């Protein structure tokens, strides 16, 4: 994956450190010290959002490479070439995540967006991001539609979360009401039990007294 998880790159086999002239031009263009090489599987490269990626063709060394850039990461992620030639894929080592542990760290980051499923810019470093966000250009239909799509996704997410919250509240309320009914029933039964004990005790304490009183009356009569 790329650093923000927009790109998911499916490989056939393991990646290796890229060597030779095929890697040199990519290292120079990406300004990185190391590149990896590999082979794409049938699943290929999957992007969460096409609008957060660009592609450009680079002709070098007799090969035509398609360089893919993530606009959210602001980095060239990889490049691929069709036809013969090895490697068929080069990866920017500074732009990709290669372990599950690192992916998990991204998912747990405070800058990970559950709405879009992406790692976003660090707002704690630059709070002005939230203040300086420009409005879409009304004259640019593509830009306006893109903004509307983002807003629709936000609204849908909020609606789904609200519905899920209400379901949790309803379930919690139902369980609490059941607990209350059980407590009410227990309270009444406890009162009955305690009252029965008190009543039985009171009856037992009254019986000998009554017998004794009756005996005394009989003696006096004699």
UniProtKB/TrEMBL annotation:
InterPro entries referenced in this protein's UniProt entry, alphabetically: AKT1S1
Please give the residue ranges the record annotates as the region Disordered. Answer: 199-222
Which GO annotations describe the biological process of this protein?
Answer: negative regulation of TOR signaling; neurotrophin TRK receptor signaling pathway
Coiled coil where?
Answer: 158-186
Q: Which GO terms describe its cellular component?
A: cytoplasm
Q: Please provide the record's keywords in A-Z order.
A: Coiled coil
The protein's name in its UniProt record: Uncharacterized protein
């Amino acid at each position: 994956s790329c650093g923000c998880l927009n790109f998911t790159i499916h490989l056939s086999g393991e990646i290796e450190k890229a060597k030779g002239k095929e890697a040199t031009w990519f290292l120079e263009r990406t300004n990185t010290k190391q590149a990896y090489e590999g082979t794409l599987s049938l699943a290929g490269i999957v992007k969460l959002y096409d609008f957060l990626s660009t592609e450009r063709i680079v002709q070098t060394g007799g090969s035509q490479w398609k360089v893919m850039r993530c606009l959210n990461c602001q980095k060239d992620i990889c490049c691929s070439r069709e036809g013969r030639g090895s490697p068929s894929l080069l990866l920017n080592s500074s732009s990709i995540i290669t372990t599950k542990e690192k992916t998990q760290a991204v998912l747990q980051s405070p800058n990970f967006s559950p709405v879009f499923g992406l790692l976003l810019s660090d707002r704690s470093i630059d709070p002005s991001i939230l203040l300086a966000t420009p409005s879409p250009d009304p004259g640019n239909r593509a830009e306006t539609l893109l903004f509307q799509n983002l807003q629709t996704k936000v609204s849908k997410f909020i609606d789904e979360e609200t519905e899920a919250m209400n379901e949790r509240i309803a379930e919690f309320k139902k369980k609490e009401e059941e607990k209350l009914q059980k407590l009410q029933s227990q309270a009444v039964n406890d009162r009955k039990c305690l009252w029965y004990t008190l009543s039985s005790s009171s009856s037992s304490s009254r019986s000998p007294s009554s017998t004794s009183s009756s005996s005394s009356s009989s003696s006096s009569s004699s």
